[in-house]
Amino acid sequence: MRSTLEMPTRSGPASPVSTPGPVRPAPVRRRRRLHRLVPYGYLSPTALLIIVLMVIPIVMVIGYSFADNVIVEPNPVFAGLANYVKVLTDPNFLAALRHTVAFIMISTAAHLFLGLTFARMLNSPLLGGLAKAIFRLVYILPWLFTIAVVAVIWRLLLDPYGVVNYVLQTIGILQHGVDWLADPSLALWAVTFVNIWSGYPFFMISLLAGLQGISPELYEAAAVDGAGGVSQFFHVTIPQLKPILLSMTVLDLIWTSQQFALIWMTTGGGPLNVTEMLSTYTYKQAFSSYEFATASASAVIVLGLSLILALCYVRSQREVTR
């Protein structure tokens, strides 16, 4: 807006003169700009860490996957898709892929089943307060141990002279001790069992929280309509737990696909590569065979598979929030 003032002149009557409106001083404008930059200042340390610790390494590994003689030579040779062809045609990689898929699927299914079973038991009104507290403590114990401790415990338990063989021999199931982690026909099943044992408590706690959030009125209404326990489970419990079940399933697929420490500290991918996973295969390529270009190509493939699972998780979350 412009204001006019009547300015007298010598030659005649006053004439209107326009003057500019109020102008904000420069310090005020500067403070407002700085105020807008404050959120970015708070985010900058985290953004810097993500760039340095995630973005740059990922870009470097992707670049290594298209080169040859990386790290060893100062000027790597561009190899195109040769490393990817080498990896995808490697029988060991294909075997690791099969083992990983079996390991993931069995572990996730067992986590869901055991987690839901124990959660329903802990949510049952038949158990008193003290009994629930004791069972919760017992069932959550595997989740309290680190992977290193879990690996050491089960290596001792599954030893030919360990507790598991002793119990099975005592009750007459086995005639002699079995080396569960060294037998090619049993090692993958043994490692999968250990992973199931160490991972089901997280499902149990999450599903128990979901069960406690279901309104009792839904079960009362279903009972009035003549629904029994099985019908209530499939028509009330499962639909109410569907968002949690979907989210936990996709997350467990991602976490289990990245399992490395448990495999490495129990079997190391052996015996005869029967427990070789994509994670251990990539590690061996890099630090046992020193094939960093091949390891980079394998890592990029694993990254792509993980991104697919991550996109599935994001999509599931969007469906839940709708």
UniProtKB/TrEMBL annotation:
This is Carbohydrate ABC transporter membrane protein 1, CUT1 family. Residues 1-26 are annotated as: Disordered. Belongs to the binding-protein-dependent transport system permease family. GO terms for biological process: transmembrane transport. Its main location: membrane. GO terms for cellular component: plasma membrane. The chain crosses the membrane at residues 40-67, 101-122, 134-157, 186-209, 250-272, 292-314.
